Amino acid sequence: MGQTTSDGVRRGTIASKPLTADIDKMLKGAEAHKAEDEKRKQIVEARNHADAALNSSEKALADHSDKVPAPIKSAVETALANLKAVKDGDDLETICAKTQTLIEASMKLGEAMYAGQQGEASGGPKPADVGVVDAEFEAA
Description:
By secondary structure, the chain is mainly α. The chain has helices at residues 16-32, 34-64, 70-86, 92-121; strands at 3-4, 10-11.
């Protein structure tokens, strides 16, 4: 049923009917599981997004917790705990909602950090302002 080539390798022929049937069977199986695979993909992406939000928020909180008001710090800590509790589950909507809550709390944390830095920076004269005198100028 096969041929032998000049280099001594025996090559066979592939029957097209069984191969076509196998391909059709695999395609039908893929179509049957398409929705399930898509949902699984969305859950994995949501978990990855949640992990990224957790890591960045935990780092920001650890680095700047002493410069942030207690209510904001508490809100971020609560959002962190709530997301950690659900991120390994299969409820896509809950993971996304808790991730969004953490992101919003982290934004408030960032605003507080920025406001604290601005307050520290505005405490003294700016180098460009030293020796500057306000004056009016009239063109002749």
